[in-house]
């Protein structure tokens, strides 16, 4: 017999027979939201409700949120679904194309281990990132987009086009959710937004590019991936606790260790690499505040050069190179988009550091892509100032 205290501790739950068929099969509580309940929305599966002797089905193609799935999932569901006709999991698994499951498997077994050399960071991408994706679909879409691009580099030629199509589809599905709602998402889902921004950066840098495809010089302003990456500052400033104790703690802790060493490395040790660009700024930038802005960017470059070039035993890592992109003043990025010669030349020196990251598949060749854009955008009279960084990365203008 239950005593009084145990009776008082029990919570009353309203039972309902009106939940969707999918939740009933999985024996989970359904919120009965129509046309699709929350759990079916998250899993991206059909949501069906029994009505008398007939069944009302909400088609995947009628979903209202681009988070839940992608058009590719719908188009291929009939031909690629798992051959399971009965059992509690048949509806859920039957709605997922095999290729989508392959991409998630590839992420956990392969891709997640290529984003860092640090075991604790690899583990975060392997285990924690998918967990975030299960409850935050725009993160899952970003994971699948990056996984598809990684598979593109490894698979046979006959599958590459399909990989690219899947990568683009998942990337666009994530962007359609985040881009118009970024302010609200930052407040409520800061960690997921940061993870999304990193994955978007990886996607942008690793996707195949044509010669005229801009990567750092946006046609209508700063490219989205760079905007999201620099936006991390806002998220981190509003939630310091998240970066130290949340799901992303392994990444930030690793970055803090390297940043400490980098910031305590004498910048003068890197001066030999940046003296020419510093000379250009002093000669060609007359406005005092603008000159100080560029000098700050060059000082940060000098610090990174000192860290990476000063000790050959140190392997270049994204936590040392890429932070420069969000540490520099906003004005430098604005001037870059305006194709101002000093900004273009400063970024050319940054390419020398990016070249050190060629060992990572998603950054391989990125320094050459950057340099090509900068060279084409720079007025011919200033191109001589690109000689040293171009030679340092082995880039030549054809």
Q: Report the C-alpha radius of gyration, rounded.
A: 25 Å
Total beta strand runs: 2
The biggest beta sheet reads: 2 strands, antiparallel
| Helix/strand order, N-terminal first | HHHEEHHHHHHHHHHHHHHHHHHHH
Which percent range describes the beta-strand content? under 5%
Q: Helix content range of the residues, please? A: 55-70%
Kindly report the spatial arrangement of strands forming the biggest sheet.
1-2
Mean pLDDT, all residues:
79
GO molecular function: DNA binding; DNA-binding transcription activator activity, RNA polymerase II-specific; zinc ion binding
Protein name: Zn(2)-C6 fungal-type domain-containing protein
Keywords: DNA-binding, Nucleus, Transcription, Transcription regulation
Domain Zn(2)-C6 fungal-type: 19-49
Index terms:
single chain, 398 residues, mainly alpha, two-stranded antiparallel ribbon, 23 helices, 62% helix, 3% strand, disordered N terminus
Describe this structure in words.
The chain is 62% helix and 3% strand. Helix 21 (341-355) packs antiparallel against helix 22. The protein has helices at residues 4-9, 21-26, 38-43, 71-80, 90-94, 98-109, 119-135, 137-154, 157-178, 182-188, 190-206, 224-230, 232-238, 240-245, 249-263, 271-284, 288-310, 318-321, 324-327, 330-337, 341-355, 366-377, 387-393; strands spanning 47-51, 54-58. The relative contact order is 0.07. With 398 residues, the protein is mainly α. The longest helix is centred in the C-terminal third of the chain and has 23 residues, at 288-310. Among the domains are: 98-239, no CATH class; 265-393, no CATH class. The chain has 23 helices and 2 strands. A two-stranded antiparallel ribbon has the order 1-2. The protein starts with a helix and ends in a 5-residue tail after the last helix. The radius of gyration is 25 Å and the shape is elongated.
